[in-house]
Design a protein that fits this description.
- The complex is a heterodimer of chains A (about 450) and B (about 210).
- Chain A contains 18 helices and six strands.
- With about 450 residues, chain A is mostly helical.
- Chain A has two domains: about 170 residues, no CATH class; about 190 residues.
- Chain B has about 210 residues and is mainly alpha-helical.
- Chain B has one domain.
- Helix content of chain B is about 65%, strand content about 0%.
- Classes of the chains: A mainly alpha (about 450), B mainly alpha (about 210).
- Chain B: Keywords: Membrane, Transmembrane, Transmembrane helix.
C-alpha cells in the first residue's frame, strides 16, 4: 500500500474529485436542460435554475465524502486515526477539499452551460450572484452530511446512506410545504420552484437560506470531526440564517418592467411582454406563417398577444369593444410551462388554431354557463380539428395542457365527424371562400352549419 | 466410516456462514426497521415534482419511498460478499451450492419486506407498482454489484431512480417506476432481472 506524507494530497483523491466533478456536471446539465423552457433566455430564471443541479449534486458530494471518511473503517485502520496526535480535520483535510473542489467544478460547468444558453438570447437583465449562493451552500451541506454518514453508518452502506440523505431532506421540505401549506418550507429549501419571470425573492431570504445550509453542513462536519466547539458555533450561525428566512419567507417582489408590452406592427399585429422579448423574432415569424396559411381569414385588424392583458398595456384596440378589431391570445406553451421561455412549434400551431377557431366558442359557452355539447361547439370543434390535421398536429389533446381532446369528441358525436369530413373534402378555394364570408361569425362564435 | 452432521452443527455452520457475510441481529433489526420506514413513507404517495399524475383510481409511488429502497437493497447486496475471504479460500467443499442457497435466502429476505409492507399501503397506491419498483431497484444493485462493488452498484441504481424521478427526462410511457399503466410490464421485467442478478451473484462468488 502506498503511503503519503501527512497532510499531503493522496493521488487517489484526485480520481474521486474528478469523478465528483464529472457526475455533478453531467447530472446538473441533464436536469437543467430537461426543463430549459422554464429559464432559457431569461436571466433571473437562469440564475435560479442552476440551483436545480444541487438536488442530485448534493447526493453525489455527500456519497463521495462518506466513502472517503468511511475508508478508515472499511480498511480496518480507524484505531490508527483515533490514536493519531493530529486532529480529524488535519487527517481528512485533503480528501474533503477534493470533494468540495470537485462539486464546485461540477456546478461551475452547469453554470457555464446555463450562461452559454441564455447569454446569446437574453435581451435584458444579468446573472444574479445572490441566486447562486444557495448552489454554493450545497457543497458544505453535502460534505457535512457525508462526514456524519461516514462516521456513523456501517462502512459498506455509508455512501448510499449519505447519498439518500440530501434528497430525503429536500423531499421532506416538499412534504411539509404540501401538507402544512406554509411557504416557509419551500422558501428554506436549497432549490425552490418559484418562477422568477415576473417575481423576485428578497436578497435577505436568498442569503439567509444559503447561510443556514452552509452552517448546517459546517456544524455536521465539525461534529463528525469531533470538533464540538466549532460545531456549536456553526449551529449558532445556522440559527441566524434561519431567522433571516423566517422573517422574509413568503415575500415576493413584482417586476413591473417584465410586464411591459413590446409590439410589432404588421398582419397580424403581435405583442409580447418584455419577459419574453427574447422569443419575439421566432414568435412573430411563426405566428405570421401560421396566419398566412389560414385560407380566407383576414388578420389585418387582429392583434396577437402572448399573455393576457398585453393589449391594454400596449394601447391596442380591444377585440370585445371594436366591431372589426380582434384579439387573439396565443400563449407559448412547452411541456407543462405556460408562458414558456422556449417555443414548441407544434404546441404554438395548436394554440394559434385554438385561439382562432375554438377559444371564442369556449369563452362564449363559459360566459353563458353552458355545459357539454352546444351548437357553438358543433361549429368550432370540426374547424379546430381541420386546422390540427392541416398542420399535422396530434388530435388527442396532447399539444398543451388543458387542450380539448378533439379525437374523443369526434368519436362521441357522429355529427362532428361528418362536419369535419365535409369541410376537409372541400376544395381549398371553397374553404377559403367560406371562412372569408364567415370570419366574423367564427370570431364571435355565432353558430352556423359548416358547408 | 460414514460421518453425519448433526442438526445443531448444521445450524452453527449456517450461522457462521451468515455472520461471515455481515449478518448480525442488529443488522436484521435495522433491515426490518428500514422496511417499516419505507411502508410509512409510502403512505404519502407523493411522486417527484412535475411528474404527470397517475390515472384516476390509482396513485403514483412516493419518490422518497423509492429512494429509501436503495438502503435495504444495498444492505442485502453487501451480505452476498464474504468478509472472511481467507477462510473461503481454504474451504473443503465447493462454494457453489452454499452460495446458491445463500442467494435464495437473500432473495427471500428481499421479498418479505415489500410483501409485508404492501398490505399497509393506501388503497389508492398501486401494489404491483410498489413491488415492481423494489424488484427493479434490487435487481439493478445485484446486477451492477456482480461486476463492481456494492458502492458503485448502489450509486448506479440511484442514478437510475434519479432518471425516472426527474421531470421531463424519461418519456412517461417508458417510466416504469411511476407509470401505473406500465406496472405489470415493470413487475415482469423486475422479476426477470432479479433472477438474472441472483444468478450473476452466484457465479461471481463461486
Amino acid at each position: 500500500m502506498r503511503s503519503t506524507a501527512p497532510g499531503r494530497a493522496n493521488p487517489a483523491y484526485l480520481v474521486v474529485g474528478v469523478a465528483v466533478a464529472l457526475l455533478t456536471a453531467l447530472q446538473g446539465v441533464i436536469v437543467v436542460a430537461a426543463k430549459s423552457e422554464r429559464w432559457a433566455g431569461h436571466w433571473a430564471n437562469t440564475s435560479a435554475a442552476v440551483g436545480w443541479a444541487t438536488i442530485w449534486g448534493c447526493c453525489i458530494g455527500s456519497a463521495a465524502t462518506a466513502w472517503l471518511v468511511a475508508s478508515a473503517r472499511r480498511h480496518h485502520y480507524e484505531h490508527l486515526i483515533q490514536a493519531s496526535s493530529r486532529s480529524c480535520f488535519a487527517i481528512y483535510r485533503s480528501s474533503l477539499l477534493t470533494v468540495a473542489l470537485g462539486s464546485l467544478v461540477g456546478y461551475a460547468v452547469v453554470l457555464g452551460y446555463a450562461v452559454s444558453t441564455t447569454g446569446p438570447r437574453a435581451m435584458h437583465g444579468q446573472l444574479s450572484a445572490v441566486e447562486l449562493a444557495s448552489t454554493l451552500a450545497a457543497v458544505p451541506l453535502a460534505i457535512g452530511l457525508g462526514g456524519v454518514a461516514g462516521r456513523l453508518v456501517p462502512a459498506l452502506l455509508a455512501p448510499i446512506a449519505a447519498a439518500v440523505a440530501p434528497y430525503v431532506i429536500y423531499m421532506l421540505l416538499v412534504y411539509a410545504d404540501a401538507y402544512s401549506g406554509s411557504v416557509l418550507f419551500s422558501d428554506i429549501s436549497l432549490s425552490d420552484q418559484v418562477d422568477r419571470t415576473y417575481l423576485s425573492l428578497p436578497v435577505e431570504l436568498l442569503l439567509g437560506r444559503a447561510v443556514f445550509w452552509t452552517a448546517v453542513g459546517a456544524s455536521l462536519l465539525c461534529w463528525a470531526m469531533l470538533a464540538g466547539r466549532a460545531a456549536y458555533a456553526a449551529t449558532l450561525v445556522a440559527s441566524f440564517g434561519l431567522s433571516a428566512v423566517l422573517l422574509t419567507a413568503g415575500t415576493r417582489f413584482e417586476k413591473p418592467g417584465e410586464y411591459e408590452a413590446v409590439c410589432f406592427a404588421g398582419v397580424p399585429a403581435i405583442c409580447v411582454d418584455r419577459a419574453h422579448e427574447h422569443l419575439a423574432d421566432e414568435y412573430v415569424a411563426r405566428i405570421r406563417s401560421a396566419a398566412a396559411v389560414v385560407p380566407g381569414f383576414d388578420f389585418a385588424a387582429t392583434t396577437v398577444i402572448l399573455v393576457e392583458g398585453l393589449a391594454e398595456r400596449a394601447g391596442q384596440p380591444h377585440g370585445e369593444g371594436s366591431a372589426t378589431a380582434r384579439m387573439l391570445l396565443v400563449p407559448v406553451v412547452k411541456g407543462n410551462t405556460s408562458p414558456a421561455h422556449q417555443i414548441d412549434p407544434t404546441a404554438l400551431d395548436a394554440a394559434f388554431g385554438a385561439a382562432v377557431f375554438l377559444d371564442p366558442c369556449l369563452r362564449a359557452s363559459g360566459a353563458n354557463g353552458e355545459a357539454g355539447v352546444t351548437d357553438r361547439l358543433r361549429m368550432a370543434v370540426p374547424l379546430y380539428a381541420w386546422w390540427l390535421a392541416m398542420r399535422k398536429a396530434p388530435l388527442d389533446g396532447s399539444n398543451y395542457p388543458g387542450e380539448l381532446d378533439v379525437r374523443s369528441v369526434l368519436a362521441e358525436d357522429a355529427a362532428y365527424a361528418a362536419a369535419l369530413d365535409g369541410f376537409s373534402r372541400l376544395p381549398r378555394a371553397d374553404q377559403a371562400a367560406w371562412i372569408s364570408a364567415n370570419q366574423d361569425r367564427i370570431s364571435r362564435c355565432q353558430a352556423l352549419p359548416l358547408p | 466410516m460414514r460421518t453425519s452432521t448433526r442438526p445443531r452443527t448444521r445450524v452453527l455452520l449456517a450461522l457462521a456462514f451468515a455472520t461471515a457475510r455481515g449478518v448480525t441481529l442488529w443488522g436484521v433489526a435495522a433491515y426490518a426497521a428500514l422496511w417499516l420506514l419505507i411502508g410509512v413513507v409510502a403512505q404519502f404517495s407523493m411522486s417527484a415534482l412535475g411528474l404527470r399524475f397517475a390515472p384516476p383510481g390509482s396513485s403514483s409511488l412516493d419518490t422518497v419511498a423509492v429512494v429509501f429502497m436503495l438502503l435495504p437493497a444495498a444492505a442485502l447486496a453487501s451480505s452476498t460478499v464474504s468478509r472472511a475471504t481467507e477462510l473461503e479460500a481454504v474451504r473443503a467443499r465447493p462454494i457453489l451450492r452454499a452460495q446458491s442457497l445463500w442467494m435464495l435466502v437473500v432473495l427471500g429476505a428481499g421479498s418479505i419486506g415489500p410483501w409485508a409492507t404492501s398490505f399497509a399501503l393506501p388503497q389508492a397506491v398501486d401494489r404491483i407498482s410498489y413491488v415492481a419498483a423494489w424488484c427493479i431497484v434490487f435487481a439493478s444493485v445485484l446486477i451492477v454489484g456482480a461486476i463492481s462493488t456494492v458502492m458503485v452498484a448502489s450509486m448506479c441504481t440511484m442514478g437510475l431512480i434519479a432518471a425516472f424521478s426527474t421531470p421531463g427526462l424519461v418519456p412517461w410511457e417508458y417510466n416504469l417506476m411511476y407509470n401505473v399503466t406500465a406496472s405489470r410490464a415493470a413487475a415482469l421485467l423486475g422479476i426477470v432481472l432479479l433472477l438474472v442478478g441472483g444468478c450473476l451473484q452466484v457465479v461471481r462468488h463461486r
